[in-house]
Design a protein that fits this description.
Layout lengths: L10 H5 L17 H29 L11 H4 L2
Length: 78
């Protein structure tokens, strides 16, 4: 039913997983309006930077349609 644990040098380490505290942690403090605004601004800056990099990078990834296809002279049989 119960498995024996291997011995450890410190007994309190072996029993630490069974310990339950009856003291509740303090409630989390609410973020102020400045902190919330800062988080939104940071998120908006990151999203705008990613969108801008995609928009500015699109011309470099596409080839113009009127560019002639270059062939090597070996393809002509010369």
């Amino acid at each position: 039913m119960f498995r024996r644990r291997e011995p450890v040098p410190f007994a309190f380490l072996a029993e630490a997983d069974r310990f339950r505290s009856n003291v509740a942690p303090p409630p989390r403090r609410r973020a102020s309006a400045g902190q919330i605004a800062g988080r939104w601004l940071l998120g908006l800056t990151i999203v705008a930077g990613l969108a801008g990099s995609v928009i500015l990078g699109m011309p470099a990834l596409s080839t113009p349609p009127h560019t002639p296809v270059q062939q090597s002279q070996a393809a002509d049989g010369r």
